[in-house]
Amino acid sequence: MNKEQFFYLYFVYNSNELDYLYYFGVLIILGFLWIFISKPKKLNLFLYIIHSLLGILFLYYSKNFEADSFRVYVLGSPDYCGLIFNQGYIINSGISYCASGITKLFINNYGFSTGIFSFIGFLGLNIFFNFLIKISINIKDKFRILYFFTIPSISFWTTGIGKDTLIILSYGLIFKFISADYLQELSQKTSTIKRRLNNFVYLSFGLVFSYFTRTYTLYILAISLLFSRFKDFLKIIFNLRLKKSQLFLIPILIVIFLYANSLLFDILNFSNSQILNNFDLIEQRALVSKINAIESGGSFVSQEGIQKLIYIIGGPFSFKNINFIVESFTGIVFISIFYSIFRNINILKKNLISNNRLILFLISLGTLELIKIYIFAFNEGIIVRQRVIPFILFFIVYYIINTSKYKK
Asked: If pLDDT is split at 50, 70 and 90, which confidence band does 380 have?
């Protein structure tokens, strides 16, 4: 597709006033199917309605401010699906263009496609939401959890056509696997073989989706999953004992880590002959990202060191328009979460010392996500949309800590 064709299609799709009708129409249909299959509780229904309503803001924003999601929609085609196993297309998230193209086979409308992606984003959020509801103490806590997930930034950045929406479902599936042991301990029930197999299927699909969506996430997921198994490594070293399921899982995670490490040069768009080691590679890629951010003409983030870290977590500290106000509110909530976690640092230490798998996984993955943003993100838009995942992960850590404190 040449530039003239692209801009022609961009104008045609952007001027379609039926987008909002198709958006709500497909979400109503998918909502009824979800209700029929899942039999959700009232709070889940509230979350679905709120997520759908907040998603309309993204639809409006993306139509009027030339968002990346609109480009992915215009260029999306089922032809990308035939190239899904081509490494070059995988690394460049060909699955986003493939999925967008598939939605266009049903109805070629931007609002319709956005509605389907919004539903995918909801399914991912709902996994995290369900976990917190299960461990909640009372009805007031349940509504506090709902209030958190109604923060506009969360639904806004998990609605659009693209990687951010697909990755939240991938992470949700992996989280469903890692949180199963924690829920089992709380319920004091023995997990059945069928449930264990189902959980392993969730892990497998989550890793595969992550690989196809953002290949580098396979690297940080493998590290986080291995770190969560730290206690099992100690058992191997000192006791030479391990459950059969862990004996099977740990070698698989090590293989995934080694495979992801071998892809690192390709993921960051460098050849092996150019750079000698991973640290030089990361430094060079960060420089390229910085230059691209400056040339893009967007909101360039010039802060460095601790100032940039504070900006990522609590920023953008601006009230120049409604977008900055909403993201600044999200930043304030994020800072409050970190403050509460550090205020209860002794409870966190006990969880870490006892090798709580879930806590280890959440902290390692959330930290790696923040490090990734710190190193490679220099654009305000990229920062605020990619911090949604660590935002959710650290909220879960905060809630588990506070729940533990309350029970004691």
From this structure: confident
